Amino acid sequence: MKKCRLLRSIASCGLTLAFLSLPLLSGCTAMASDKDLQTLEEARKQAESSEAELDTCKQRRAELERQLAQKKQELAKWQNIKSSVQQSLGQ
User: Fold this and answer.
1) What are 35-81's pLDDT values in tens digits?
2) In 6, 7, 44, 86, which residue has its Cα 20 to 30 A from 63's Cα atom?
3) Residue 23 pLDDT more than 70?
């Protein structure tokens, strides 16, 4: 029973030590390379460009929706006029 507990504690200590040593063995550096920084800068510029394009599209969509609402209102007005004329002709 004591041997089993001893083996379990050794195994758990070994696993803990292995997990804690992974970052040390992974080869991470304290500084990013110039290539990594350049890639990051390009990605940032692309993201800013995409966000600007998205804003432009949102503004265009809002303008088109406003125009659509205006045209629908105008259509309803002309349909009312048409209805009035048809009623007048029918009487």
Assistant:
1) 888 999 999 999 999 999 999 999 999 999 999 999 999 999 999 99
2) 44
3) no
Secondary element (H or E) of residue 63: helix 34-90
CA 55/CA 57 separation, integer angstroms: 5
Residue pair 32/40 in contact (Cβ under 8 Å)? The answer is: yes
> Residue 27 — left, alpha, or beta (φ > 0 → left; ψ -120 to 50 → alpha)?
left
pTM for this entry: 0.53
Amino acid at position 42, single letter:
E
Structure tokens of 87? Answer: 């009623």
